From TrEMBL:
Keyword Oxidoreductase: no
Region (Disordered) location: 1-20, 690-709
Alphabetical keyword list: mRNA processing, mRNA splicing, Nucleus, Phosphoprotein, Repeat, Spliceosome
Protein name, entry field: Crooked neck-like protein 1
InterPro entries associated with the record: HAT, HAT_Syf1_CNRKL1_C, Syf1-like, TPR-like_helical_dom_sf
One of the GO biological process terms: spliceosomal complex assembly
Superkingdom field: Eukaryota
Amino acid sequence: RGGACAHSGGKMASTAAGKQRIPKVAKVKNKAPAEVQITAEQLLREAKERELELLPPPPQQKITDVEELNDYKLRKRKTFEDNIRKNRTVISNWIKYAQWEESLKEIQRARSIYERALDVDYRNVTLWLKYAEMEMKNRQVNHARNIWDRAITTLPRVNQFWYKYTYMEEMLGNVAGSRQVFERWMEWQPEEQAWHSYINFELRYKEVDRARSIYERYILSRAWVKVAALVLVHPEVKNWIKYARFEEKHSYFAHARKVYERAVEFFGEEHMDEHLYVAFAKFEENQKEFERVRVIYKYALDRIPKQDAQNLFKNYTIFEKKFGDRRGIEDIIVSKRRFQYEEEVKANPHNYDAWFDYLRLVESDTDAETVREVYERAIANVPPIQEKRHWKRYIYLWINYALYEELEAKASKRTRQVYQACLELLPHKKFTFAKMWLLYAQFEIRQKNLPLARRALGTSIGKCPKNKLFKGYIELELQLREFDRCRKLYEKFLEFAPENCTSWIKFAELETILGDIDRARAIYELAIGQPRLDMPEVLWKSYIDFEIEQEEFEKTRNLYRRLLQRTQHVKVWISLAQFELSAAQGERLQRCRQVYEEANKAMRSCEEKEERVMLLEAWRSFEEEFGTDATKERIDKLMPEKIKKRRKLQAEDGSDAGWEEYYDYIFPEDTANQPNLKLLAMAKLWKKQQQESEAAAMDPDKDIDESQT
């Protein structure tokens, strides 16, 4: 019975345990969404912010006896070993473990840990460095040497091992040991800095001969490495320069010169470098060997491409300025600038500004044949497009060429050939240059060859007539006092350009100077009868001034009346009034006032009210000077009222652009403006009454005391 109970009791217990294992699912009664929704971004941000919260520091543990210390060590070692067991390749765990053992002065244990770590990853540079630094800090010199030997044997291309090993030996005073390490390092053909470190090490101990031998080995080894590796790039020049400066620094000048000469011979003409020659020249300059310096510079400049010799040019120029004569300095500057201009014109032959600068340089310092050669090269670059704007700079090459031949070379025959070649080249049917024709004619006149000059100008007028050509030809004949030729030229000119008012005026002035007044008047009559003129107002003014000079006042009045039939411009009326005022006659004031009256009536229908105001102001000025009180009062009544108005504006697309204020004039004479004037007068009266009522309201007897209120 007891067994059955026990059996049943165990069954109930297992059933109860099984029931306890079943998780209870919480039933959510309200499945509606919460009012405040939390996004995943908010959750991540909150988690990130909580990471930054400072956790309370762990409690300090004080160890009071040896058992606690051993227990602490056991726990820490177990933690480190567990971390290493989890991931053996994480070297930081090994280093922390070893440093912890080192802090407890357990050097043997730390050494064992480093050895175990090296078995895992012997290529880790940090591991070797920490291992060696531990031995050096604990003054285990032999152990440190052993580690450095193993490190440089295992990883010979890690320069940091070699640097630290040599530095340790040097700090220990073991100069021979340090030199031995350097020698082992140099067998691996390291980079430049390693060689220089070895050289500086020897120089610190005044071993100049050893340093020289290292330089020799370094330069030869570098050259051998380059050739053996089939690298076509030549060794660097700076190593040779450093070697030579080392010799110079220690006053071995013959050795330094020999190094430079060996470098020049080694690189040859295929791999010339300007830095080597600059350094060589500066060395010779310091030795006061100025002729040697000049030979070096010239040798290099003759063989190095100009685009790679900018620094060489610069240093050569400085040298000549310091120790050379004026001619040598000028030769250097000119040759350098000539090279620059040559490069520019090669890059763009149609860059005429570069040609101008080049020619200016050549003219100042070379012979005539060289200058002619450069000019011929320049003028051979004809603009590819026959448009005048592309030829405007080019034509000055021909002009300068002709002037050079005439003024500098004194070759009149070649000058004539230059002008004729240029004129044959120009496409006269499309465009021409009057300047070129005129310069050619002036040159022939200077050569006392007047028929050729006239023939050239006549050809120009026949091929491509232009205003400037006619003016230049006429000016030439005027200077020669050939007035009949001038008349014929003016006739041809006016047939070519009848709308040119200046030509008509100049023609009439010529006839006036010659005393032929009737011909001048006839020319003016022909001019104002032309259907199209470019400046008619200038022509009419000149005609009127001409008649006034001849004191033909009646003809002047007739001219004004004829002009007023064509235009009712206010300036014409004012000019007529001033003419009547200046005419020496008894009725001049009455005539002048009559002109103003007539002008005022004629301009009532004028849309431009400002012109009418201008006329009235001129009239008022006249009356103030010459008029009576009655005439002054009358003109004052004619003056308009100036009022401000608004008008609606429209944009280009037709939309509303707002309002604009402008000033308008209301003339009392106009019957349509009478209601406006009455309204304006009533408005002024109302404004005056308002001001009077405001002044009465501001009476102090009627003010109310604020305190009583």
